[in-house]
Amino acid sequence: MEPLVTHTGKVIPLDKANVDTDQIIPKQFLKRIERTGFGQFLFYDWRFDEKGQPNKGFVMNQAAYAGASILLARNNFGCGSSREHAPWALLDYGIKVVIAPSFADIFYNNCFKNGILPICLSEEQVEELFNNAETGNMNLTVDLEFQELTTSKGNIYSFETDPYRKKLLLKGLDDIGLTEMYADRIAEYENKRPSNRFVEIRN
User: Fold this and answer.
1) Of 51, 71, 77, 187, which residue is least crowded by CB atoms under 10 Å?
2) Contact 177, 1 (CB under 8 A)
3) How many Å apart are CA 126 and CA 94, to the nearest integer?
4) Rounded-to-integer distance, Cα 155 and Cα 150, Å
5) Backbone angles phi, psi at 140, to 5 degrees
6) Using CA atoms, how far apart are residues 111 and 169, in angstroms rounded to an integer?
7) Residue 62 neighbours by CB under 8 Å, 6+ apart
8) Could you read off the pLDDT of 8-67 as tens digits, one per residue?
């Protein structure tokens, strides 16, 4: 997992509340066994029509938002089932940061485990960002260490995040990476542990 310390990117304003994980990555695309390749199916039912052609009215298909890496959304983003494929699809598409007034708990946790920073701002602050992102020309700089968002106009928004999750994201550590930090101690324990050890069960 790549560290996320600072990030500057264009903003996609997804003006929808209660976006669930089946909308983020529909269930028919969950057959892949890798974590990659899901980006092409992100928001598939909104991005494409019934013939598989791009829906020109959907914000992500508009040229002004091409290459955007920060997603701006409304309340309760990532609700629904607990599928980890949702952050996989966002990350594979190129989304590094998601901003919303609130997130579903499991999705919120899965974002940190997969290198995406979910940021909660107030509804008023999110509304301000939506108003400025409508032209497709708004860039944001995210500084995780100082927990600040800075707009291209110089406006600064502070945000809160869990210190432990912040530390792992700054270092680019997921659960596996964290475990690998203790590889020497695990190996030492395994070497000291008798290979013929067993537990006797008595009635």
Assistant:
1) 51
2) yes
3) 21
4) 6
5) -125, 145
6) 10
7) 56, 136
8) 999 999 999 999 999 999 999 998 888 899 999 999 999 999 999 999 999 999 999 999
Q: Look-up: residue for tokens 């100082």?
A: 146
143, 97 contact by CB (below 8 A)? no
Give residue 174's pLDDT band: very low, low, confident or very high (50, 70, 90). confident
**Is 55 in contact with 47 (CB distance < 8 Å)?**
yes
Residue 170 tokens, joined: 């700054």
> DSSP E strands: which ranges in the chain?
6-13, 70-72, 97-100, 117-120, 139-143, 148-151, 156-158
Structure tokens that stand for 53 in this block? 């052609």
- Tallying the residues shown for the chain, one arrives at 203
Amino acid identity of residue 167, one-letter, is K
